[in-house]
Specification:
heterodimer; A: mainly alpha; 2 domains; 8 helices; transmembrane helix (chain B); membrane (chain B); CbtB-domain containing protein (chain B)
Chain lengths: ~250, ~70
């Protein structure tokens, strides 16, 4: 029976295609969440931004007044953004799965796929989120965008390094509870160093409504949570399929 | 089908130099797409601020810095 399992493995291309598909679906689902939960907050923030701009008169930067893309266009563009972003993340997840699968110490493909998606959620969403929480329109100084972008990318890299450090640390320990402890310690040390080294950024105006900021940030976190949960589950379902089908075929012939 | 013993299935292709090169190309492509969605201000896409404005809400809600 075991021969069925040592049969043909899916190619990288097949896995990549599944990753892209799972990512596109996850991105569109995240778009639906962002549209329903997030857009009302973005609208409210833009209303504040415009009120401020009118109050400031001609001195306003005119960023949104140009209307290169109208609000309806931007709401449609939301799905383009989350769909493309999801597909790209799906491609990266499929690639990570292909390259790292044999190094992951689990016999379950589903766990491997979900584990990688969870690691990505932790490293490139949650770690950056707590250091540089997302801001709605009307918050953020356009002059500091380059510095903020560089800091953001740095914390994304640090988040991934922290996850990797946690895994490496866990593997140095024999007992399971010490593995968990070592993983947490390795992860937290790298995160702490990153948080301390990178500059603090707080550009929220004093007059910006606190509840709106909170609600926007929760909506943003929810968008990413939907994205990565759907991507992990979708990819796990699609990527483990060929093996299951093969096993089923083999079972029939036996 | 007896399932007395679970043999670990080979669920991924063997890692070869060619596969790694393909994977690197794919990673670069995926990062380029993410860049266009999340960070471009017209310098790479040559679309001015059009792409930026079109995907403006997505940037904010995906949590990346935006203006």
């Amino acid at each position: 029976m075991s021969l069925s399992a040592t049969g043909k493995a899916p190619t990288y291309g097949a896995l990549l295609l599944r990753g892209l598909l799972a990512g596109l679906i996850a991105g569109l689902l995240a778009g639906v969440f962002a549209y329903t939960v997030g857009e009302p907050k973005v609208d409210a923030a833009i209303a504040i931004e415009e009120a401020n701009a009118h109050a400031a008169g001609a001195a306003a930067d005119g960023h949104h007044d140009e209307e290169l893309v109208g609000r309806d266009g931007q709401k449609g563009g939301l799905f383009l953004a989350t769909g493309l972003y999801g597909a790209a993340m799906g491609g990266l997840l499929a690639t990570a799965y292909t390259v790292l699968r044999r190094r992951l110490r689990t016999t379950s493909d589903t766990r491997a796929a979900l584990g990688l998606a969870g690691a990505a959620l932790l490293g490139i969403v949650l770690v950056p989120y707590l250091k540089y929480p997302p801001n709605p329109p009307a918050v953020g100084n356009p002059d500091t965008i380059n510095q903020r972008t560089i800091s953001y990318l740095a914390i994304v890299v640090i988040g991934l390094v922290a996850v990797w450090a946690g895994v490496i640390a866990a593997r140095t320990q024999p007992a399971e509870w010490r593995q968990a402890l070592a993983a947490a310690a390795g992860f937290l040390i790298v995160v702490a160093v990153g948080y301390l080294l990178l500059p603090a950024i707080d550009e929220v105006p004093d007059t910006f409504p606190a509840t709106l900021l909170w609600n926007f940030r929760i909506a943003s976190l929810g968008t990413q949570a939907v994205m990565w949960s759907a991507l992990g589950l979708g990819f796990a379902a699609l990527a483990t399929r060929p093996v299951r089908e093969q096993a089923a075929r083999e079972a029939v012939t036996v | 089908m007896p399932h007395t013993q679970t043999v670990r299935p080979i669920s991924t292709p063997a890692i070869s130099r060619r596969l790694l090169l393909t994977a690197l190309t794919v990673v670069a492509l995926m990062l380029l797409i993410s860049y266009l969605v999340a960070f471009d201000q017209g310098a790479v896409s040559r679309s001015g601020m059009y792409l930026h404005e079109l995907m403006h809400d997505g940037r904010h809600l995906l949590g990346v810095p935006c203006h």
